[in-house]
Amino acid sequence: MITRMRHRRTATATDDPRQRATQIRDYADVGRTSMPQRMIIYTSGLLMQAMFIGIIHAAISAVLVIVAEMYDRTTFAHVRRMDPDCAVQVRATLRRIHLGTVYSAGIIGYFAASLTLLQSQISEFVLLLYLLTAAIFATMNSHQIVSVLVIRLAVYGAVFLLIPLRGLALGGASFAPEMWFTFLTSLLVLYFVVDSALAALRYYRISKCHLEQLKVENERAKAALLAKTEFLSTISHELRTPLTSVRAALDMTVAGAFGPLPDRSGDVLSLSLIHI
Known about the structure:
By secondary structure, this protein is an all-alpha fold. Helix content is 88%, strand content 0%. The longest helix has 78 residues.
C-alpha cells in the first residue's frame, strides 16, 4: 500500500501541468538562444553532403533544415501563448515538441546515415565525431524534457552504432581488429553521452528545486516584512492617541493652567515634552 501511494505521488508530481509547462518553457527558451549552434551543426552536415554526395542532395537536405527551423520557431511561439494551468494545452504543446524533435533529430541522423551508405570515401571517425557533437549538444540543451532527450539520443545512438556495424558487415568473415575497436569505442562513447545526459538532467532538477525553495523563502520573507510593517503601523496608531492626550495635559500644566509649578518640576515637564 505504501509503495502504491509513493508511485501515485510520483505520478501526480510528474503529471502536474504547471511543472510540465515550466520544463517546456525552459526548453523553448534554450531552443531560441541555441539557434546559431544548431545552424553550425546543420551546415556541417550540408557541407559534407555537398562535398561527398552532390549539390542536389545537399540542396534537398537544406530545404529539410529550413522546414525544421520554421517548425521550431512556430512551436516556440506557441509555447509563449500556452496556458500553464491547462493540461490539454500543455500536452498538445508537448506533442508538437516531440514531433519537431523526431524530425530535427532525423535530419542529423540522415546526414550521417546517407554519408555512410552512399559514400565510402569519408572517414568513419569524421561521421562519429559529427554525431558525437550533435549528441553532446542535445545533452546540453534538451535535458529539460526527458522524453525529448531520449528521442534525440535514441536517433543519434542508432546511427552512431550503424557506422561501425556497417564496417563489420562489409568486413565479412575476415577478422578486422580496427573495426571491432571502433565498435567497442562507439559503445564506450555512447555510455559517456548517456551518463552526461543523466548528469545534466540531475543538475537541472536540483537547480529547479533550489529555485523553488528560494521562491518559498522569498515569499516567507515578504510575509514577515508585511506583518512587521502592519504591527508597527498598528502600534504607532494605538500609541498616537494617548500620547497626544498626555502631551496636551503636559502643555497645559507647564503653561500654568492648573496653577504655578515649582521651577524644578517645570523644567522636568518641559524636558519631557521635548521627547514626546
